[in-house]
Amino acid sequence: MDGLTIFGLLSVGAMLLFYALEPRGPHYVLAFAGACAFSAAYGFLQGAWPFGLVETVWTAVAVRRWRRL
């Protein structure tokens, strides 16, 4: 595996982990937003711009949810 693939794996893995932990507190919602941003960066770096775009939207949704908490 190259570095970009490892970065993507860790980003998406962090998304899954923090999404599961969201009920425990708002800091996990913010961590989920950060993981979404990293996943978006991975998508754009990989050249999969639709994935990057969707992850960017998920980042905005998670930040908005965090602000409401």
Number of strands: 0
Gyration radius from CA atoms, angstroms: 12 Å
Instruction: Give unreliable regions as ranges.
Output: none
Q: Hey, roughly how much beta strand do the residues contain? A: under 5%
Explain how this protein is built:
By secondary structure, the protein is an all-alpha fold. The chain has one domain (3-68). 87% of the residues lie in helices and 0% in strands. Helix 1 (3-21) runs antiparallel to helix 2 (26-46) and helix 2 runs antiparallel to helix 3 (49-68). The termini are far apart. The relative contact order is 0.16.
What's the short version?
This protein is mainly alpha-helical. It has one domain (3-68). It has helices at 3-21, 26-46, 49-68.
SSE order and pairing:
Blueprint lengths: L2 H19 L4 H21 L2 H20 L1
Helix pairs in contact: 1-2, 2-3
